[in-house]
Amino acid sequence: MINIAIDGPAGAGKSTIAKAIAKKLGYIYLDTGAMYRATAYFAIKNDVDVKDEKAVSLLLEQLDMDIKYNEIGEQHIFVCGENVTSHLREHYMSKAASDISALPIVRYKMVDLQREFAKTHNVVLDGRDIGTFVLPNANFKFYMTATSHERAHRRYIELEQKGEKMDFEILKADIEQRDYNDSHREVAPLKQADDAIYVDTTDMSIEKVIEFIDNRVKEKSMKETTTQGNDEQNNSLIEISKESSKAVSINEAEKKKPNKPRKPLTFRFYRFMRILIAPWLRMLFPTKIVNKENFDKIEGGVIICNHYSVPDTLIPSIKLFKRELHVMAKAEAFASPIGNKFLRSIGAIPVHRGEPDLAAVREVMAVLRANKKFMIFPEGTRNRQGTEEMAKFKQGAARFAIKSKKPILPMMYYRNHKLFRRNYLYIGEPIYLDEFYNAKVPDDYKKATELIQSKMNEVRVLLDAHVDSLTIKK
Q1: Are 218 and 240 in contact (CB under 8 A)?
Q2: Burial group, residue 137, by CB count within 10 angstroms (0-12, 13-18, 19+)
Q3: What gap in Å lies between CA 170 and CA 155, rounded to an integer?
Q4: Strand pairing category for 75-79 and 82-83
Q5: Helix, strand, or coil (residue 435)
Q6: What is the DSSP string of 308-334?
Q7: SS3 content of the chain, % helix, strand, coil (to 5)
Q8: What are phi and psi of 137, to 5 degrees?
Q9: d(CA 381, CA 426)
């Protein structure tokens, strides 16, 4: 797919130019700014402060955004079934969109939607961080700007044509404030990408800007076509023309490939390491698996377990996950090149705790969609006190199970591991969350998580009873 990124501050004319370029080349124009405005509109409509990250985070659980195009190629955004397009260019929406887009959780959600769309379409995107953050590998990047006075003047004329009156100085001050906010936000601030072409539109007409960008796209396309050196590579580049719809068929085979989980080194290294450490692990941490047959009752699903120490992951890999292992681990452990290569080769998935990590979520969902087993510690951290009582569960396990419509399999260690001391790993009956498969609001995930924790408490009771029965027999 061919992606064109146009970045720049508010009022630089990005949207106007992006739409014109998309039309000229026969591409789809994806109005990313409208996506943030639609999110802000949804928050305002529900009386949620656009600067309140916690409240917005909860609201996003209810957000269902759909992007449609009419017969003349105009984009319409639907939020929870409502066409909100006509509300998005109100003056107050500009600042609201800037405020809500500064929240990391909002940006991650929108970026994920935009990237997925760009994978399957020839698109032109405009915004403030398209070339630097959203599509860092875009084929063509431009950074458009103009003086704040000129940008305020353009916006003033636009509002005036709509019959709206606005003080010019207030409008100019708003634009300058937004410039500051956008360039100083923590996540993906406004800045020119190193490989973007700088375009100052202050004294340029719309026609001149379109001509300039169109020429640069064609020039670069011709250079890349020449340096490719063979027909196969030339076809993958795709000549920039109104016949760009042919690009879809070129990548059709790629689009039809199933979304499979990552299999580093085809898990040969994992299997080799498993054979290598198995005798030592059995000797150092002897662990009896109870109800092993329950593990085979599900083909794919979310495996949850209490967490004391490192052997909690190693023991299931020796006793249960004989072919491959998929387990979530903190991103800090992947910091060094050696650590990253080793952990990746044994199937670990890095997650940045305490922040939205869409890459980790996508990887986990790919595993589950492939009908594989995925292991997670629902407490989110180790039980360093070594007690039986578990911390309050995070919602990750419930969300993964509900989104993938897969069962949860609970496992429970009897106690913390100590060298040469026998331990027990009890496998409970699968937990099915059918009643929550249509979950829409945060409270549904909360209830599902509470159900999972109650089931784990039941497994603890059964495990204790099992160990007690063995003690009595002795």
Answers
A1: yes
A2: exposed
A3: 12
A4: antiparallel
A5: helix
A6: -STHHHHHHHHHT-SS---EEEEGGGG
A7: 50, 15, 35
A8: -105, 25
A9: 20
Q: Which domains does the chain have, with CATH numbers?
A: 3-255 (3.40.50.300), 264-473 (3.40.1130.10)
User: Alpha-carbon Rg of the chain, whole angstroms?
Assistant: 27
Rounded Cα distance, 69 and 28, in Å: 9
- Binned at pLDDT 50, 70 and 90, residue 332 comes out as confident
| CA 42/CA 60 separation, integer angstroms | 9
**Encoding tokens for residue 109?**
């959600």
pTM for this prediction: 0.47
Residue 123 pLDDT greater than 70, yes or no:
yes
pLDDT tens, position by position, 20-52: 998 888 888 888 888 999 999 999 999 999 999
Picking from 302, 289, 312, the residue whose alpha carbon sits closest to that of residue 386 is 312
Helix and strand totals (H; E) in the chain: 17, 15
pLDDT band at 427 (very low <50, low <70, confident <90, very high): very high
Percent of the chain whose pLDDT exceeds 90? 30
Tokens (6 digits) for 222: 């011709």
